[in-house]
Design brief:
By secondary structure, the protein is α+β, with helices and mostly antiparallel strands. It has two domains: about 50 residues, Winged helix-like DNA-binding domain superfamily/Winged helix DNA-binding domain (Arc Repressor Mutant, subunit A); about 80 residues, 2-Layer Sandwich (Alpha-Beta Plaits). It is built from six helices and four strands; from the N terminus they run αααβαββαβα. It has a four-stranded antiparallel beta sheet. β2 and β3 form a beta hairpin. It is elongated and about 60 Å long.
């Protein structure tokens, strides 16, 4: 395992601001923390080089783009030796937004986004047809009630 990086209070304050809005300008962070923008840049670069910060993310409001249907699909594989191949095939489908290798009931568990029930059916059928998938089990999301990584990030950085 990699070694843990020691963050000081200034690093934590910078991260706290960036967690809330990754697009906050370094000059705005500097003004808020009463430091120079150069200091912010150096600190952020240090955390990027250490692998603590990886890029920045964009959050889309899928519903406003017509993708109102979310489903979770558990995949049963013919054999675990097919796992890598099945994951590669899932990766080719842009509607599969998350996939996990899991223990328990399913070999792989994934999340899809679709425009409608018919669209989801086509996606699910295409997953069923992947070589190595023996069957799938689908759960339809009625509502995505919590989708918030920020609270955990704040908690982690406040514990450091």
């Amino acid at each position: 395992m990699g070694r843990f990086i020691k963050l000081d209070e200034l690093d934590r304050q910078i991260l706290d601001i960036l967690i809330d809005n990754t697009r906050t300008a370094f000059t705005d962070i500097a003004k808020k923390l009463l430091i120079s923008a150069g200091t912010v840049h150096v600190r952020v670069k240090k955390m990027e080089d250490a692998g603590i910060i990886k890029g920045s993310s964009l959050t889309l409001e899928y519903r406003k783009l017509g993708y109102t249907f979310i489903a979770y699909i558990g995949l049963f594989l013919e054999t675990t030796q097919k796992t890598k191949f099945v994951l590669e095939q899932l990766h080719l489908n842009p509607h599969v937004t998350v996939a996990h290798i899991t223990t328990g009931k399913f070999n792989i568990f994934c999340k899809i986004r679709a425009k409608s029930t018919d669209h989801a059916k086509d996606i699910i059928f295409s997953i069923d047809e992947i070589d190595g998938v023996s069957r799938t089990e689908t759960m339809i999301s009625l509502e995505e009630s919590i989708n918030d990584k920020k609270r955990l990030m704040h908690k982690i950085f406040n514990e450091l």
